[in-house]
Amino acid sequence: MNDAAFTHGSCKKCDTCAIHQRSFCRAASDEVLNELSRISHLREYEKGQVIVAQGDDAEIVGNVVSGIVKLTNMSMSGQQNIVGLLFPSDFFGRAFSDESRFSYEAATDVTLCCMSRHAFETFVVRHPEVEHELLLTILDELDATREWTAMTSCHTTMQRVATFLFILSRRSDGVFCDPSSRTRLPRPIIALPIGRRDIAAYLGTTPETLSRNIQTLVRQNIIRSLDTNHFEVVDMPGLIDRTGETREDLESMSGAEPLR
Amino acid sequence: MNDAAFTHGSCKKCDTCAIHQRSFCRAASDEVLNELSRISHLREYEKGQVIVAQGDDAEIVGNVVSGIVKLTNMSMSGQQNIVGLLFPSDFFGRAFSDESRFSYEAATDVTLCCMSRHAFETFVVRHPEVEHELLLTILDELDATREWTAMTSCHTTMQRVATFLFILSRRSDGVFCDPSSRTRLPRPIIALPIGRRDIAAYLGTTPETLSRNIQTLVRQNIIRSLDTNHFEVVDMPGLIDRTGETREDLESMSGAEPLR
DNA sequence: CGCTCATTTGACAGAAATCAAAAGCGGTGG
DNA sequence: CCACCGCTTTTGATTTCTGTCAAATGAGCG
């Protein structure tokens, strides 16, 4: 699409950006991208750092470049709920609102392409084609969130666990940025990006129940444990079977994504 | 905001539209609204009619004017999952996508302000200020959906039932369109817009468990049964108490809304 | 090595799903 | 008007699953 942006050296930072082709900025022309690059800056956060706190002024927005960001909601009782996970190329922060209804926290060490919310807002209003692309992104996000809602509301814990693992097996190869480097492994690897406590919260269960379900899958030779956070899918049909979904539905989920 | 649109007679259909002030079209100027009115038309659907089917070409988009639309997702097992409910002023249909990932179905008799998806898409691209307003709408929708996700993943069934009833008590008076006609009833009425089976699916439980929880609330004098689908809230603090949320959180949910 | 924290495992109580049946509601046709 | 039928909702009895509490094991680190 933006071949020019790659052959010319209009914006080094963005040209070499791993997610450029997958985030809303792909709609920007060379010069617009240049402008965008002037208001954005890469920033690293260590695992556990809070990027935007719930109820905060939400002054930062941007894209996840590498690592995983977790989106959380603190409930009255003080319990932290995982509302979603943001992967590379996903948009984070709450544009056009004075406060964020959720917290954004680094689930792993992350690199973010950050912009001041104000600067971003005036930028997109001046560039409708970029705002349009952002709208498409958010619409996909909404679909994905609703699909996840559908998933969680009628499925057993085992089905949710299996679905989660399936999706991670599609995401974990770091394959989402550069399609050409995609090497189809015969035995997909599942890399758990976050701790059991967070996964459990995301799946609406407890670490104990999650652990039991995972161990059950291991005993049934569906997956094999490599280390605490890595598993190998031994029996993919068996895993899909336990999700209670068709392979097609799962594929569509892992593309646009509930977990994003 | 658009006083001119109301004092002038630029567009009779839109001027008298109950939801005009609350939907994305409020961003349109007189002449733009006029243009919009030329591509839109009111249409009635009877309860149970499918407006857009899952996987369909999704050729229609628009706003809910009156009644309630249910958003459903058919899972592999053939079970119908309720993903959300759309109330008056909510946007329905999937813009900018060739197929809808969900079905839109009339949960009650509804009136919709319909547009051809294609006409709508070219329209908003020509009018960035309207597309911007649409983006704001979708961002709110996304927040609301995530908040609902947070709700369902960590709460007991009773808390989900209480929250659902609370939200309906705020929506059921048909009060969401014209703030001036808002008559605060001392005893809010809850009108269940859909059957128990659907509500149960939406809340991630079964009709039996749902029924038991409702009957428990009746026995505890929190609500009083008028007929099968109507209840009166006798003890609002008690109801709020059983949601496990603060009143503030509930208000924000019923405004922007998980159920939308 | 000893510390802390995360994960796994076990035992048990409570909640919800399931199975089964009764009651309520709305329509149809005699 | 009433009896019958199909459907939804409610209620009851039972089983299964999951959350909770508690303890053991394992991983990372100074």
Q: Count of helices of chain A?
A: 10
Q: Tell the overall outline of chain A.
A: globular
CATH homologous superfamily caption of the largest domain in chain A: Jelly Rolls
- Return the CATH architecture of the largest domain in chain A: Sandwich
Using the coordinates shown, work out and report the CATH topology of the largest domain in chain A: Jelly Rolls
**What pattern of helices and strands is seen along the backbone of chain A?**
HHHEEEEEEEEHHHEHHEEHH
Rg calculated over all Cα atoms of chain A: 19 Å
Number of strands of chain A: 11
Global mean pLDDT of chain A: 83
Percent helix of chain A, as a range, is 40-55%
Q: What is the CATH class designation of the largest domain in chain A?
A: Mainly Beta
- Biggest interface, CB < 8 A: A-B, 46 and 46 residues
| Structural domains of chain A: how many | 2
Strand numbers in spatial order across the main sheet of chain A: 1-8-3-6
Distance between the termini of chain A: 24 Å
Report on the architecture of this protein:
The structure is a homodimer of 260-residue chains. In chain A, 42% of the residues lie in helices and 21% in strands. The first copy, chain A, folds into two domains: 3-140, Jelly Rolls; 155-256, Arc Repressor Mutant, subunit A. The two termini of chain A are 24 Å apart. The first copy, chain A, contains ten helices and eleven strands. Chain A has helices at 3-7, 12-15, 30-39, 117-126, 128-154, 157-171, 196-203, 207-219, 236-243, 247-256, and strands at 40-45, 50-52, 60-66, 69-74, 80-86, 91-92, 103-106, 110-116, 189-191, 223-227, 230-233. In chain A, α6 packs across α9 (236-243) and α6 packs across α10. The model of chain A is unreliable at 1-9, 174-182 and 256-260 (pLDDT under 50). Chain A is globular. The first copy, chain A, is α+β, with helices and mostly antiparallel strands and 260 residues long. In chain A, strands 1-8-3-6 form a four-stranded antiparallel beta sheet. In chain A, strands 2-7-4-5 form a four-stranded antiparallel beta sheet. Chains A and B meet through β5, α5 and α7 of A and β5, α5 and α7 of B. The structure holds a DNA duplex (30 and 30 nucleotides).
